[in-house]
Amino acid sequence: MTAAKNLGISVSDVNVEKGSSCAITVVAAAFTSGNGAISSTFSKKGKLLRIKLKNENFVDFDKIAAVYALSGELIRLRKVSAATVMKESLATDAVISCLGNGMGLEFCDFVGESHFENDAGDLIILTNDERLTAYPFIETVGDVTDIPKFIINDTTLRADATVTAYNAPFAKYFPTEAYSEGYTKNLGISFTKKKICGFPVSRPKVFMPIFDTAIDKEIARRFRSAGARTEQVVIRNSDEKEFTKSVEEFSKTLKNCQILVLNDGNCRDEIKAAVEELLSRDGLILGVGQGFGLLLKTGLLPYGKFTVNANVQAALSENVGAKKTCGIRRVRISSNLSPWFNGVKTGDVFKVQTSEKDGRFVINKALSDALIVKGQVAAQYIDLNDNATMETPYNPGGSAEAIEGIFSPDGRIYGRATRFSRVSDHLYENVPGEWDAKIFESGVKYFK
Length: 448
Prior knowledge:
With 448 residues, this protein is α+β, with helices and mostly antiparallel strands. It has helices at residues 2-6, 61-76, 90-99, 159-171, 213-225, 240-254, 269-280, 290-298, 300-303, 365-374, 439-445, and strands at 46-51, 54-55, 58-59, 80-85, 104-107, 123-127, 138-145, 149-152, 155-158, 205-210, 229-234, 259-262, 284-288, 314-317, 325-333, 349-356, 360-363, 377-382, 403-407, 413-416.
């Protein structure tokens, strides 16, 4: 009741009858500045410490307030790289916090029954500042290492086996593994001479026909941050008349733009003419998700021009296992052929966010071999050992040759299966690695 009143919620006159489904719901939210957020999982080496808050099941709230104030100051001073609140036991939560990033842990003392007692509420922090152990209520747990194994007394557990055991109870109901047949290899080719724009402009305009509002907003925001202007047209398809009008507006708007972004849609003759005119002005095209699929259907990828449907030999298809996959994947740049990739080098590794059911790239083997030789494979999904793989979850859809995206022959058209949504500043603080391949900045600079 006190919390509700502090939030300005009046509860004095509320009556809930016995058996009623009505209830009071109080929603609490916490906020922090971007530089004050740290991960709750361990991704760096360091000393693992425990801040014990309870004393024989007695909770000292004054002590809790003091400890949290101290913890906040240590985080601000960057003396703590990660911290988590214990939900179960010391041993369980310490190990779980290492699993996601492939870290290991060596306990410094004998691990007994007390390590598995329910001590919910205590804090576990990761630090490299040995002086913190001087506090009487802080004890050393062990050392977090980058070797994926857990050393507990005289027993050593491999991290991958621990992950399998951790996921086993739910594997039957929520399977996480599927395998796609096929051979893949690590690709890499670099270009020193690339397409140069023959029609420079000081501030290029990006045209984004709207099919998926949330994704379009994020892409528009990132293009504007890179210095571009954006133009959007809602594609109305409730009836043929509205759709025809939208197509006309599409063609008219594109004539005044330099970049076309697609994340869905279909293609008519009027649109084809407008796209061909854009390409004649050295314009750029970016296809994301189903927009990538549209570029494949039309032949703009991989050929760089419209092609009759009978000659299409690549497509986006349903994922292996026919499941929608959501998660964070690793991709490696396979070629820097494209102006879109002027901000990266071949071999650079980036994180991407996936959330698709139809994200599997399929392609004729002869065409795939040709794209590889010409440097038209943009990026590949890779595993934790930096090898291109057909295995899930690293290659979420089971894409051929582990291909995540491809280019047109001159690189001006770029399509990728993964999206740009759900990625922004101060997200995924617990996921180490680089997210920004400077694609939007590169696209804008191409015209200058």
